[in-house]
Amino acid sequence: MKPNRIDSQVILDEYVDVRAQSVRLCSPLNPEDYNLQGMEDTSPPKWHLGHTTWFFEEFLLKPYLKDYKEFHPSLQRIFNSYYQTVGIPFTRKHRGMLTRPSLDVVMEYRSVVDQEVARLLSDIHGRDTKILEILETGIHHEKQHQELLLMDIKYSFSLNPLFPAYDTKPRMIYPAADELGWLEVPPGVYKCGSTSDDLFYFDNETPSHRTYINHVELSNRLVTNREYLAFIESGGYQSFDLWLSDGWNLITSENIQAPRYWIKSDHSWSEFTLHGLQELDLNAPVSHLTYYEADAFARWAGARLPSEHEWEIAASLHGGSIPMDHSEAKRSLNNWYYELWQWTQSSYQPYPGFKPNPGALGEYNGKFMVDQYVLRGGCKASPSNHIRKSYRNFFPSHSCWMFSGIRLAKDIS
Amino acid sequence: MKPNRIDSQVILDEYVDVRAQSVRLCSPLNPEDYNLQGMEDTSPPKWHLGHTTWFFEEFLLKPYLKDYKEFHPSLQRIFNSYYQTVGIPFTRKHRGMLTRPSLDVVMEYRSVVDQEVARLLSDIHGRDTKILEILETGIHHEKQHQELLLMDIKYSFSLNPLFPAYDTKPRMIYPAADELGWLEVPPGVYKCGSTSDDLFYFDNETPSHRTYINHVELSNRLVTNREYLAFIESGGYQSFDLWLSDGWNLITSENIQAPRYWIKSDHSWSEFTLHGLQELDLNAPVSHLTYYEADAFARWAGARLPSEHEWEIAASLHGGSIPMDHSEAKRSLNNWYYELWQWTQSSYQPYPGFKPNPGALGEYNGKFMVDQYVLRGGCKASPSNHIRKSYRNFFPSHSCWMFSGIRLAKDIS
Amino acid sequence: MKPNRIDSQVILDEYVDVRAQSVRLCSPLNPEDYNLQGMEDTSPPKWHLGHTTWFFEEFLLKPYLKDYKEFHPSLQRIFNSYYQTVGIPFTRKHRGMLTRPSLDVVMEYRSVVDQEVARLLSDIHGRDTKILEILETGIHHEKQHQELLLMDIKYSFSLNPLFPAYDTKPRMIYPAADELGWLEVPPGVYKCGSTSDDLFYFDNETPSHRTYINHVELSNRLVTNREYLAFIESGGYQSFDLWLSDGWNLITSENIQAPRYWIKSDHSWSEFTLHGLQELDLNAPVSHLTYYEADAFARWAGARLPSEHEWEIAASLHGGSIPMDHSEAKRSLNNWYYELWQWTQSSYQPYPGFKPNPGALGEYNGKFMVDQYVLRGGCKASPSNHIRKSYRNFFPSHSCWMFSGIRLAKDIS
Amino acid sequence: MKPNRIDSQVILDEYVDVRAQSVRLCSPLNPEDYNLQGMEDTSPPKWHLGHTTWFFEEFLLKPYLKDYKEFHPSLQRIFNSYYQTVGIPFTRKHRGMLTRPSLDVVMEYRSVVDQEVARLLSDIHGRDTKILEILETGIHHEKQHQELLLMDIKYSFSLNPLFPAYDTKPRMIYPAADELGWLEVPPGVYKCGSTSDDLFYFDNETPSHRTYINHVELSNRLVTNREYLAFIESGGYQSFDLWLSDGWNLITSENIQAPRYWIKSDHSWSEFTLHGLQELDLNAPVSHLTYYEADAFARWAGARLPSEHEWEIAASLHGGSIPMDHSEAKRSLNNWYYELWQWTQSSYQPYPGFKPNPGALGEYNGKFMVDQYVLRGGCKASPSNHIRKSYRNFFPSHSCWMFSGIRLAKDIS
To answer: Is residue C165 part of a domain?
Structure first.
């Protein structure tokens, strides 16, 4: 994590914005929803609100605000996600058991910490850079949790046979997709990863390093529900030769026949969305796929998934600038950054020369660099100012509760 | 289930009372608590409130109130516990996922059903007896859930490292126990089970039947925490010869060293209670034991657990009358009915000549008559008017979230 | 266990016979078969050969033959089944991993122990009674393992798609069954359990005690495959109301549609037997049922399973004498003792006044007295001289690899 | 797979050699050992003997030898490992259940197939190239299984408390290791993967492609037991900051404190080997590590694991020629190819432009390209003529029953 901005007022404004946005995202929830945990991978909304606050308390206020008095000692363990450096975290899969502290206590916790952060910022001196760095890291950490919050609510709501709607406004309907086109990346040595010119980045995006890209082309847009439905209807889920062995084992043992949120009734398909159960929009990009499904579709389509380096260079060459506004008006299948995270065939490994952050924040990224695959881009649930070309998202191959989709690649030989 | 009272006003008054009591029992809860499910065996408070209401809607209003309009079709599946006759119930272990319907919807459901039940009762004719029988069954069903509600809250709260208190009033402290004495049952043929003289009973308590009791004596009071602690301190949990083989496997594989809610810190013992974490009261009866623990203690004490028939006859001979008031003032280790359920060594089987109720209510008891053990008596969490000599409670041998304790037996030879 | 015979030559002859019989039972096996363990409940034949030998070494030779030299120290743990008193047994489910010691070593172990037992018997004095008691217990222990050996081989062979035949001789074909008749037991107090008149019994058959039997009748023969097939064809496995709740969960979650060894191909049924895969003999008694299946069939047939006391008294009144010869010539559905073990609805509990044997042999029976159901009778795989009216076999409700069948009971009211 | 040799006599000689070698490797086994399966990942020796034979029957004799008569239809399913194209394979974890077909039948199967392969080879014409290609693939396939055979025997024997020795000759003792040195790879674009100059390669080694290597150096030898013991003794298994998160979860939940085959008794370490339980040789290379352990050690040592491309280029520059003879005389920690497989940090993915083989053999490699990590080099159990610079071995990160070790890498910045 490396913040370049040093104006403490600017960063405090951003802090205030992001903190308010987390609360705003929870406004459609009823009290019970705040405590809902659909599976071990997801967390209750209340926990997200508490944990993001704990992050500032633990890493900023406790070490840097001299007379700071801990809000309540018992929250230390409850809201620690995985930082072994600062104690043994509460068992992840039991977060849904934490009906106490009550929501009002957590909101008070947020309020107290916000006041104390403002107090700290009002009077910073020599240790400024470090403080601002941690503050900026905490802001980006909370943005990550805002996206997780929406992923988690969607998943947890999907288990309810009432199919609750998080968002009661009408959903966006996509226009018909352009024909699939291909964007070339000439072979050669390229530079990848984040550089000091970026305003902010996580440690896992560094160091900037050289890589060789073989001759390849990437599709100019995401794969649609219509295309994925054609894959299903052609027998895609019954054809073992399209699947990685682990994927085939998964779909046969769990009887998976379609993406996670698709539901077939009689002869029509619906999709569970944040707007509740909706008719499947054939023009929308296919989403919530596992790595196995993305890979199988690509094989069926005579293509493959891109590597993360191929993706990054193709995005540089063809992806255009990153929109600051990702409202529906601007939404498009052709967008590289704000529609869906795109699976790559790259496992999540350290870049050559990678050095994790020092201290407890070193646990942030590096220790997850095994048995996960990188997704690139961003999604409609990603907060603004939280997307960049070098951003490395990562999930295990069987995961599908994130907003994941497919951009294809093809070798040119 | 067989109700003998035929005065519809009396029974409606009882209905109103029991319905109000369920809501009252939830009053110490915060909104998130209403949705808390600590494990598959337990249910969230909101679900108990909905399910007990569904019982009246499904078995009383739908068949007997001609123009009754179902409150909401989707609740049919959600609040069905296990009645296969009336559809496929929602997966038990996922009840904690049901943040919707919201609490206010469930409270409205209760209110509408209560009004409709009153309307049905205000105008009953030829089918009266059947209606009153079902109503009375529903009332007793809801009383069972009131006890479950407290068991479940206790269990679920115990998973929270904050150890929340359900009841913030000071807990009762027990006086020192009397020395353990023995109450004789002379050998001979006895009659057991419920008879038509009882006001109400479940089908599993019938038919009344003869049984032979060998010469035996039962202890005059429950085993105390002090006595159980002596068992622990003498190495009880490390002595395989005291344990049934399955029990030994359980305590060694799960590293169990004490009853479920006991916590050792440094050299003192605490116990999690509905009043939060409390110093262990050595004079209180030891509670929340598995069958294995009760059996091992009995063996260590040179005794055994009684059979359910032995218990019933001993209670007839020595148990006195069943108190209508089981307030703290009357509480005593010597009480047979209102302190703790007492494990018996009898597996839960049909009595000779047993016939389940007809229709869906036939699923109430009979289908659970395997791989469970009978507990007799009642407990402090049992509603008043819900205890009788012939009552058969039943749980699997590894369960301990109910209020279970030990009364000993000894063969006289 | 209580042997009454005191002539050491008689008992030594019996020892020699039973030891030879164990080896003879293995003669159809190929070398790999000796090490085959189909599931955790079963053991490899070689292990049975070693364990029965270990029993004599551990409980007879080591304590009573003064200069006895242990065959090999490492076998102590490997061939201990579950006796915690004499050390930590090797993990049961891994017995199939024990390709070493090799079969020839185990055969040598048998031979050495046999010689030493003969040496011990040739010169017994004051401790005679105890020695003869243990010897007799070991003989009966080995007989139990002879039956287990056949159960285990059948189960393990059934997992092989080649369906190997243990016995290559033609199987017995049953004549058409008599019509089902009923045998009455008048109500009253009866005496059950073993008495000192019996030549041998296990501790769990004692003490002899009184019991009250309500008016009941038991079927005069076992249920046939034809009758069970009618249950299947009438939709028995699809009718939840016929099943105990746990049984319904088992058959639906594991998709069970017929007894364990039945196989349907096209429209005909076969059954895996010790003679390999065979056409289903409709006149043979239905076998290898779980408690749940036996209970569901009984309910479908308008009957129930008998209690173990009802069975024992009915066998006394109507069962005739126990045949010494249970060859095919004598085989009949009407036989109480040598056809199939018959499920009772009695859970396996201690009799009133039960006292386990002292010492390590006290682990033999008592510690399994929970969560199991009693089967009575005996089966075609039971060794001769190993069947008696009071014999209590026991298995968990889901088990079906033993030779279990159904005798029905009906209340007379 | 691409064989370049076209002389059918040469290839038949190689066939005869490899077939004889498989049988020879089994010669120290007793009959029961042939059927031993220690876990799902491993297979019984008899199964290896049958499966490698099935490979030739299924892919060579059935399609290309016109009048070939299948040895026995039931073996088709039993000895199919995972080729969905040719039917549903027998459940992997139950291979140890297959005591039938007996060993003598399997040996006859081998003999018949060998004769038929010789007959096919004696008269080949137009389809020659294809036949020779498949034959060569089958030969290399059997060599892979020879290594698996030794891995599997070692694992399965390790579960036996008798610690059987596969090899009763004295094991090799390593001389003291050289001080660790570093071998530089200058940054730049390199070519990796197999080329048509190689005599044989699998499809996963192709196509040859360019890659950019950043400035790096690799250690000149493998890590020793002495060095790994220092890691343990410094608290390596108790320091979460050294471990990937998944690795930390694994070692804490399964209480792992040392490599798989190390055993501590009192204060000395032993290691289970193919020679039985032996004193730990501190100069030998540390082996049987998971990816997590290799990665944690590297972090502790201030280094990291190399990528597979870094390894391949470093081996080209510094690895010397591949020895044809990997007898003990030549064994050395410095060897790149014949000591232990070396974990790389590269997940197993297709090379750019990868195309699997056509037909059923296309299932050979490509479908496993997810959630596994590449190991490079070879090991003492690898058959001669089966090692090459471009060979990609692969296992999941938690696996350790293969002969895996550590070669370190360091970024030069």
So the answer is: no
Residue B303 neighbours by CB under 8 Å, 6+ apart: B219, B408, B409, B410
Helix (H/G/I), strand (E/B), else coil: C309: helix
* H-assigned helices in D193-244: 225-233
Same domain, B223 and B150: no
In this structure, the answer to whether residues B209 and B297 fall within a common structural domain is: yes
Beta partners for D262? Answer: D271
- What's this model's pTM, rounded to 2 decimal places? 0.95
Query: CB-based burial of residue B283 (10 Å sphere; 0-12 exposed, 13-18 middle, 19+ buried)?
Result: middle
- Residue B50, exposed/middle/buried by CB under 10 A (0-12, 13-18, 19+)? buried
**Based on the domain organization, do C273 and C307 belong to the same domain?**
yes
Chain segment B227-240, per-residue pLDDT in tens: 999 999 999 999 99
Rounded-to-integer distance, Cα A19 and Cα A16, Å: 5
Looking at the structure, do residues D203 and D310 belong to the same domain, yes or no? yes
What is the identity of the amino acid at A108?
A: E
CATH number where D136 lies: 1.20.120
Asked whether residue C2 is assigned to any structural domain, the reply reads: no
Domain that holds residue D105: 8-158
Asked if residue B367 lies in contact with residue C243, where contact means CB atoms within 8 angstroms, the answer is: yes
How many separate domains does chain A show? 2
Q: With both helix axes pointing from N to C terminus, report the angle between C8-25 and C103-121 in degrees, rounded to the nearest 10.
A: 170
Q: What is the ipTM of this complex?
A: 0.95
Structural tokens at position A391: 């951003």
The answer to whether the CB atoms of D367 and A212 lie below 8 A apart is: no
In a domain, A43, yes or no: yes
Q: What is the residue whose two structure tokens read 């929406």? A: A150
Buried b (16+ CB within 10 A) or exposed e, A335-351: bbbbbbbbbbbbbbbbb
Closest CA to A376 of A247, A212, A193, A217: A193
Q: Which residues pair with D183 in a beta bridge?
A: D218
* Other residues' Cβ atoms within 10 Å of the Cβ of residue A128: 12
Instruction: Report yes or no: A175 and A283 within 8 Å, Cβ to Cβ.
Output: yes
Which residues in C lie closer than 8 A to residue B344 (C-beta atoms)? none
Residues B202 and B124 in one domain: no
In a domain, A176, yes or no: no
Q: How far apart are the first and last CA of chain A?
A: 39
pLDDT(A4) > 90: no
Token pair of B327, please?
Answer: 């307030």
Average pLDDT score over residue span B32-56 = 98
C-alpha span between A315 and C361 (Å, rounded): 76
Residue in chain D closest to C77 (alpha carbons) equals D161
Contacts of A325 (CB under 8 A, 6+ apart): A384
Structure tokens at D310: 């870094």
Question: Any residues with CB less than 8 A from the CB of C198 and at least 6 apart, and which?
Answer: C2, C4, C388, C390
- Give pLDDT tens digits for D275-327: 999 999 999 999 999 999 999 999 999 999 999 999 999 999 999 888 777 67
Hey, are the CB atoms on A244 and D368 less than 8 Å from each other?
A: yes
Contacts of C295 in chain B (CB under 8 A): 370
Which of A38, A74, A162 is nearest residue B101 as measured by Cβ atoms? Answer: A162
Determine D/A contact with 3+ CB pairs under 8 A as the test.
yes
In this complex, the chains that touch B, judged by 3 or more CB pairs closer than 8 A, are A, C
Q: Verify that B186 and B321 share a domain, yes or no.
A: yes
Q: Which residues of B touch A36 (CB under 8 A)?
A: 35, 97, 99
Name which of A32, A33, A161 is nearest B77 (Cβ-Cβ): A161
Strand-pair category, C188-192 with B404-405: unpaired
Contact assessment for residue B40 and residue B93, using Cβ atoms and an 8 Å cutoff: yes
pLDDT in tens, B336-394: 998 999 999 999 999 999 998 888 788 888 999 999 999 999 999 999 788 899 999 99
Give the rounded distance of the alpha carbon of A276 from its chain centre.
21
Q: Determine, for residues B362 and C209 on separate chains, whether the beta-carbon distance falls below 8 Å.
A: no
Contact status, residue D149 vs residue C62, Cβ threshold 8 Å:
no
